[in-house]
Amino acid sequence: MGARCSKFSLCWCHPHLKSTVLESSDLENGWPNGRDLLPVFTEFSLDLLRVATSNFAVDNIISEHGEKAPNVVFKGILENDRKIAVKRFNKSAWPDSRQFLDEARSVGLLRNERLANLIGCCCEGDERLLVAEFMPNETLAKHLFHWDSQPMKWAMRLRVALYLAQALEYCSSRGRALYHDLNAYRVLFDQDGNPRLSCFGLMKNSRDGKSYSTNLAFTPPEYLRTGRVTPESVFYSFGTLLLDLLSGKHIPPSHALDLIRGKNFLMLMDSCLDGHFSNDDGTELVRLASRCLQYEPRERPNAKSLVASLTSLQKETEVPSYTLMGIPHGTLSSNEPFSLTPFGEACSRMDLTAIHEMLEKVGYKDDEGIANELSFQMWTNQMQDTLNSKKQGDAAFRIKDFSTAIDCYTQFIEGGTMVSPTVFARRCLSYLMSDMPQEALGDAMQAQVVSPEWATAFYLQAAALFRLGMDNDAQETLKDGTALAAKKNCRN
């Protein structure tokens, strides 16, 4: 492997790289650079969706009640490798094809990072199908009620509540305030572990194409009187979701309200959360739930006020959702197993806090042996300023003042009197912490130029590539870094 150049070095200065990288990221994730980069709403042919779902194979069913459900959801994959979720309605649903198409197109106009967005539909003969973004990390019900390895952390529960409120606020602002059957199965997790609200619940009732109904076990009081869901009913259902998040199980609202009125709200709390939340935060979330569950619809909060209240409760905001959820992120496929170093593992998870701790701990020992030939005049005239810049950058890096660290390390690098791969590595992480992955990739590549067999440089390239949405390239770079680390261990 020696001093070979990274495959990214050759294209770094290409004028179209930045645009291409951003478009790749946005097409994969839909965000953050605008809804227009998601596919436009498309009317798919039935034959295409048959191919995408292996002829609606039972093995591809992902809805919770399997093939016995009246409306079944399948996973599928299109020719461009885009993964999709396809909802296939019962034959008797949506008898009026025009109503179905109009409703689907209306929902398909929505584009938001808090939604599992609708990207198309199919209406041929008796078939009525919806096509949405595929969310690979299952439902809130799975992670909250049927978890395998760890219960959902308090910080993640608060994030779920906020992101759902933001989704409802967005929908309301676009004239889609009604949501059908809001429950823990309607909340899905994307590849980054972020919760998204399923777009399927925005479709009107399939029976007549006009009204909304609910199948919730705990229905809003007014639904029992009228059989219809109103915008205020949606926030009653949101209150039941808050109870789910608080308790880790289904609790009848009437029982929960009795406990709240008796100031026994701690009895609501999931025992797995003991010692992991403050009483003030627990009290506030209970208060919000009780407001949503008010008998009179007009006494319930709206989405905007919920977003404001939930924003102030957020914890560990710098920690990615996949880390809080314990979801593998950017790791290698199971058919290519090999052992990452702890630093490589942190880069594969994009655990920036862990990367910072490890870079801080190792210091500059990896700079040993880097040649820095300086004339006496350079030493006397410039060295002190250069060393001061690095010292100030290190102090800022230590206290996580990454903006100052970038400025100071830039002064050191532009001084030109010394070369340090560790400084490039530290500025790389500072760029990642500042949401500047393109610049971070450049610094990781520069670190590799200075120290061609330094695994850290490759691992940091992988972290930047993951952030840019170039997962396949990132995984290849992880392999390169791991091979270098293994080679170094053999020499030692």
Please explain how this structure is put together.
There is one protein chain. With 492 residues, the protein is an alpha/beta fold. The chain has helices spanning 17-29, 46-52, 97-108, 140-145, 154-173, 221-226, 231-247, 253-261, 279-292, 303-311, 321-325, 342-349, 352-362, 376-398, 402-415, 421-433, 437-450, 455-467, 471-491, and strands at residues 42-43, 72-77, 83-88, 115-116, 118-124, 127-133, 187-189, 195-198. The strands form two sheets. A five-stranded mixed sheet has the order 1-5-6-3-2, with helices on both faces. The model is unreliable at 1-36, 331-337 and 373-379 (pLDDT under 50).
Descriptors for this entry?
alpha/beta; 19 helices; three-stranded mixed β-sheet; five-stranded mixed β-sheet; 492 residues; 8% strand; disordered N terminus
Number of helices: 19
The N- to C-terminal Cα distance equals: 17 Å
The gyration radius over C-alpha positions equals 26 Å
What are the secondary-structure elements, in order, as H or E?
A: HEHEEHEEEHHEEHHHHHHHHHHHHHH
The order of strands across the largest sheet is: 1-5-6-3-2
Shape: globular
Set down the secondary structure blueprint.
Elements: H1 17-29, E1 42-43, H2 46-52, E2 72-77, E3 83-88, H3 97-108, E4 115-116, E5 118-124, E6 127-133, H4 140-145, H5 154-173, E7 187-189, E8 195-198, H6 221-226, H7 231-247, H8 253-261, H9 279-292, H10 303-311, H11 321-325, H12 342-349, H13 352-362, H14 376-398, H15 402-415, H16 421-433, H17 437-450, H18 455-467, H19 471-491
Parallel strand pairs: 1-5, 4-8
Antiparallel strand pairs: 2-3, 3-6, 5-6, 7-8
Helix pairs in contact: 5-7, 5-10, 7-9, 12-18, 13-16, 14-15, 15-16, 16-17, 16-18, 17-18, 18-19
